[in-house]
Design brief:
Layout: E1 5-10, E2 16-22, E3 33-37, E4 44-48, H1 70-79, H2 109-119, E5 152-153, H3 155-169, E6 171-173, H4 176-187, E7 192-193, E8 195-196, E9 206-209, E10 214-216, H5 220-223, E11 229-234, H6 239-243, H7 259-274, E12 280-283, H8 287-300, E13 304-306, H9 323-329, H10 346-363, E14 368-373, H11 375-384, E15 397-399, E16 417-418, E17 425-428, E18 432-433, H12 435-440, H13 442-445, H14 454-460, E19 466-469, H15 476-488, E20 495-499, E21 502-503, H16 520-527, H17 529-537, E22 547-548, H18 551-578, H19 595-616, H20 620-641, H21 648-665, H22 670-680, H23 702-727, E23 736-741, H24 749-759, E24 761-766, E25 771-772, H25 778-800, E26 808-813, H26 817-824, H27 828-831, E27 833-838, E28 843-847, E29 850-857
Parallel strand pairs: 6-20, 11-14, 12-13, 12-14, 19-20, 21-22, 23-24, 26-27
Antiparallel strand pairs: 1-2, 3-4, 5-7, 8-18, 9-10, 9-17, 11-15, 16-17, 23-25, 26-29, 28-29
Length: about 850
């Protein structure tokens, strides 16, 4: 059984362009509606043109269900099809469906429908067709698309403002995101569905009466759940607060208010008097809280009631001992569920504070109640009632909204309000907020603004800096921007640093099931967290690009940066201690004359300038690259060229370099920087590199710029000279008579001396090109052999286990006259050799085809 549909292609004026038979429906340019008689009944059905139907498979005609598909829904709205929901919220057919399907889960209905059609002789054919279908990514349950009523935020109304504030108020890194990915996503953004239909969650605070009037609730007070007004205060300053000794119940050491603490209690009473006083005062039964409450009660004429539930946090066997002992053994991270012997957890502390507060709130009505307690106890109470602020201060009052009802769905749904317009009962709309609304509200919600901490929030908004990975450009960054613009008319942050995604080494997404990533703890144990941070902050992921994580590359970063810096530090410590060197006072400025010292000081300031500029622009890649280059130059140029120096200018310059490097590296390598800084720092007022003042960015002087330029030329010339030697097959240990270099102006003697030493030449000449005198005289040949012998002896020292600086005697035996002469030029100081003698026996070494037996003795 089949039907042939006549289709007409129309001009804009309605005249027919062409007419043909077939089942093709190609786009909305065709006449939109066809009435086709149903040969099985006296009814007809309609066919509409839609651009989401193709003709490659099947007939090109599909059925549509307006409520159950995005394309179906859009088409239905466009052509005015009826919207008939047939499934309930559990996916079962409702009472509008045919009776044989009512109450049946939609995926179970397919067999019933086929059986019914077949039984009535209406089934043309049935076949299995494989196609993709949506499933829950967590549990695998089949899903269905369902159009339901929902709450939306009108993004089109504020889109212009979002684009303007992005352009004027937000700095993006990488910069291309500003007018690229982010701007384009805002331009294309649809209205935001801010509601969800779930059993539990953060309720949309809208109550509706039967006449459709909306009541929007803005606080617990609007709900009528706040029976009393609660004021909370920590006690005034006590003597044990000054000695930092723990004191809970029982009071092993009695802690009384100081004179300052008594003044704080009086000020507390005056503040409360200004706001109308209080009706009731409750206090912990510890002395310092009782004294505070009694001063307030006397001034306000209110009796004080003690309650043991308001006591200080119980630290058990640490009671009466220094706070530092407890902090060491029970850091903040473990206190929620770990208690000291005979003590309590923060969870237990919170439970007793909440128990007290809720009991008092139920017992009284319309009272102003002051509660005097302790720092940790009040802090835990704030956390419970969602009003977390700064840690409570001595004698300072604050309010907390105390509700007797859980404000989440479903509990809040039991609250019935009176409609302010018609007086009828209003019930809460059943939807809850999309979790992204909560995420977008973070900037102000964490302060309970505007009900709480108004000044604190406004002093910190907008945030100076925020960071997340690139997917948040269309998620968290976006929703914060939307909510902030709606409420405050501006962006919620000034700077955004956006990262890419860290992938497995082969480019796949890291997955527990695939186990395609290295164990992070093994990586950290092997390389340390500093190396891992340096690797990531120096990688493409910080430019919002994807990174294929490579342990091999991490190892390179570890060796090139962490190990080399540690070796430099160890070199300094070893030889500064050996020389009994001590740094001068903070105001001391050395009169440097050595060009290497002048160079490293200028190079260090240049490092500060570069890292500061790059971090100010949130470019960690360029900042870490500058640090990496500096570490390399500090090691391979300054320290290497300064070996053997034990003068105060060398030690002072190297210490200065390490101290400054520790400061600018602290954001990247916090632990190594802290270790180096803490050991070299002599200022007792600055106990950590992370509390030290950032080095000042300064313009280099003309002299410093010239020093850097001249030294850079020297280093480049050295590299070129090494390449020339290699092409001429002449080892670097072989001295040459001279080298000639070319430059606009001749170098001063100190730079030429460095060139001579680095290129191993006797003389440096200023000329028109770079070239060596390659004629090797017998004297030069002898020197070259001596240098090769020194290298061989150094290797033997390492193999024999001799330490740096440990003296040894050398004996040799050879028949070669040139080697005998070379031993006369042997540098005993550099190799820590005491005396040289000719004796039989030893290890055979070969130098330029010449053999000698060499032995070392401690």
């Amino acid at each position: 059984m089949s039907s042939i549909f006549w289709q007409k292609k129309l001009n804009k004026d309605g005249t027919i362009i062409e007419e043909f038979k077939g089942s093709k429906l190609v786009g909305l340019e065709y006449e939109p509606l066809f009435d086709v008689p149903d040969v099985r009944s006296d009814k007809s059905f309609k066919i509409y043109a839609a651009d989401f139907v193709n003709t490659e498979d099947g007939t090109g005609v599909v059925h549509t269900a307006v409520v159950y598909g995005e394309d179906d829904y859009d088409l239905g709205l466009k052509v005015g099809l009826p919207v008939v929901p047939l499934l309930d919220e559990k996916g079962k057919f409702n009472d509008k469906a045919p009776k044989l399907l009512q109450g049946v889960y939609f995926k179970d209905s397919e067999k019933i429908i086929k059986k019914d059609l077949e039984g009535r002789g209406l089934l043309f054919a049935k076949n299995q067709h494989k196609h993709s279908y949506p499933h829950c990514w967590r549990c695998g349950t089949t899903l269905y698309y369902n159009a339901i009523p929902a709450w939306f935020m009108n993004i089109q109304k504020i889109k212009k403002g979002l684009l303007e504030t992005n352009d004027k108020e937000i700095n993006w890194f990488p910069e291309h995101l500003k007018h690229g990915r982010y701007e384009k996503s805002v331009e294309a953004a649809p209205d935001w569905n801010i509601s969800r239909n779930r059993y539990w969650g953060n309720p949309i605070p809208v109550w509706k009466c039967e006449d459709g009037h909306n009541t929007v609730v803005g606080s617990i007070k609007d709900l009528g759940l706040e029976r009393n007004t609660f004021y909370f205060s920590r006690h005034g300053q006590a003597d044990l607060n000054l000695t930092m000794v723990a004191s809970n119940y029982p009071e092993i050491v009695i802690s009384s208010l100081t004179d300052e603490g008594k003044k704080q209690a009086e000020a507390l009473a005056n503040d409360l008097r200004k706001s109308g006083g209080v009706d009731l005062i409750f206090s912990s039964d510890l002395k310092r809280t009782k004294e505070t409450a009694e001063i307030v009660g006397k001034l306000l004429g209110v009796k004080v009631v003690e309650d043991e539930r308001l006591r200080e946090y119980n630290v058990g066997t640490y009671n009466g001992k220094p706070d530092a002992d407890y902090d060491r053994d029970f850091p903040v991270e473990v206190r929620w569920d770990k208690a000291a012997p005979q003590g309590e957890t923060w969870k237990q502390l919170q439970e007793r504070m909440v128990d007290f507060t809720e009991e008092i709130n139920k017992k009284y009505q319309d009272k102003k109640i002051l509660v005097v307690s302790h720092g940790d106890a009040l802090w835990m109470l704030q956390k419970y009632f969602g009003s977390e602020r700064e840690y409570p201060k001595f004698g300072q009052v604050f309010e907390v909204s105390v509700s007797v009802t859980d404000l989440h769905r479903p509990y809040i749904d039991d609250i019935v309000l009176k409609c302010k317009q018609c007086g009828k009962d209003s019930h809460r709309t059943p939807e809850i907020f999309d979790s992204w609304v909560e995420a977008g509200s973070m900037p102000f919600a964490e302060y309970h603004y505007p009900i709480d901490q108004k000044e604190t929030f406004e002093s910190r908004f907008p945030a100076q800096f925020i960071s997340e990975y690139i997917a948040q450009t269309r998620a968290w960054f976006y929703v914060m921007h939307v909510i902030s613009y709606n409420l405050f008319g501006k962006a919620p942050f000034e700077n955004v640093a956006t990262t890419g995604t860290i992938l497995a080494e082969d480019g796949d997404k890291m997955s527990k099931s695939k186990n395609n990533y290295p164990d992070p703890w093994i990586v950290i144990d092997k390389y340390g967290v500093d190396a891992l941070r340096f690797y990531l902050m120096n990688s493409s992921v910080m430019n919002a690009d994807n990174l294929n994580f490579s342990e091999k590359e991490l190892g390179v970063v570890y060796r090139k940066n962490i190990l080399i810096l540690w070796n430099i530090y160890n070199y300094f410590v070893t030889y500064a201690n050996e020389a009994d060197w001590e740094p001068k006072g903070p105001g001391y400025k050395p009169d440097l004359t050595n060009v290497l010292d002048l160079w490293i000081v200028a190079k260090t300031q240049d490092l500060v300038n570069e890292v500061t500029e790059q971090l100010d622009n949130y470019n960690t890649v360029r900042a870490t690259r500058a640090i990496e280059n500096y570490i390399n130059e500090l090691s391979t140029w300054y320290v290497r060229r300064s070996r053997g120096r034990k003068d105060s200018h060398f030690f002072g310059s190297l210490r200065h370099a390490l101290m400054v490097l520790a400061k600018v590296s602290a954001p990247v390598t916090p632990y190594l920087s802290e270790l180096i800084y803490s050991n070299l720092n002599k200022n007792p007022d600055v106990i950590s590199v992370h509390l030290a003042k950032w080095p000042e960015k300064k313009e280099l002087t003309a002299e410093q710029k010239e020093i850097l330029s001249q030294m850079q030329f020297v280093r480049e010339t050295v590299e070129q000279g090494h390449a020339l030697r290699k092409r001429s097959n002449i080892k670097l240990r072989q001295p040459l008579a001279s080298v000639t270099y070319t430059l606009k102006d001749q170098l001063s003697k100190e730079y030429e001396d460095i060139l001579a030493d680095e290129l191993n030449v006797k003389a440096v000449n200023f000329g028109s090109k770079l070239e060596f005198d390659l004629n090797i005289s017998p004297e030069l040949k002898k020197e070259g052999l001596a240098r090769e012998l020194e290298r061989a002896v150094q290797d033997m020292r390492k193999k024999s286990g001799l330490q740096v600086g440990e003296q040894a005697d050398l004996s040799y035996d050879t028949d070669d006259d040139e080697l005998k002469a070379a031993f006369e030029l042997f540098d005993t100081k550099k190799t820590y050799i005491g005396k040289i003698s000719r004796e039989k026996g030893g290890e055979i070494v070969e130098i330029d085809g010449k053999k000698a037996a060499i032995a070392l003795k401690k």
